[in-house]
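Ticket #4471: structure output looks truncated?

Reporter: J.K.
Steps to reproduce: submitted the chain below (226 residues) through the standard prediction queue, then opened the result file.
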Amino acid sequence: MSGIAGVDGVPGGWVTVVLRGRAPRWTVRWAVVASAAEVVELTAGCTAVGVDIPLALPVDGTPRACDALCAARLGRARSSVFPAPPREVLLEPTHEAAVRRARELTGRGISIQTYNIRRQILSWDAVHPLPDNVIEVHPELAVRGLAPGTEFASKKTARGAGQRIAALTHWVDPARALADLPEGARLDDCLDALAATWSAARWAAGRADVLGGETGARGRVMRVAV
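Returned output as attached by the reporter:
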């Protein structure tokens, strides 16, 4: 395997981890880069790249099926899923304007949290064409796939971080994977990126559950691999 990558957003950019070799004793390489284009360049030789961000936007007010399916799977943790808005909403200069535009197009507003990551979403939307090895994933679904019996606490808490590290031991050696984390990324960002590699590897092997599948903006498939 030439490499499996996981990507999660950080303030001002992206944390990327590339795993090479064999589970669980992968060779691990971390990096923090500023743009989606740099992520694509960094991971060009990878078999699969799992990214925790909407990669395909809806073309009208119809919600993405994958968002609803992710939320349903997460149950009480469904708040970690947000409905991806149309591009027109993300291009609005203020949150207030975005709320108005979203209500016009979708019948509902847009949260400030979603609006605040609009640049990250648009950064990937601008990557055209999107490489075939890049797939949208959701780390909260990944850790639950790794440890299905665990009732996960918030990833922002010590308990939640510990639970996620324990879940990831089924996939990576934490002592190796977390030994030298990059500056500019928080622990929860890095754990999300590692979880993203698990879903990416499953997708590359043809074993992933693929949620959604309808065509969105730029002809991209709106789907999430788990």
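Triage note (M.O.): checked the attachment and the full token line is present. The longest strand covers residues 13-20.
Status: closed, working as intended.
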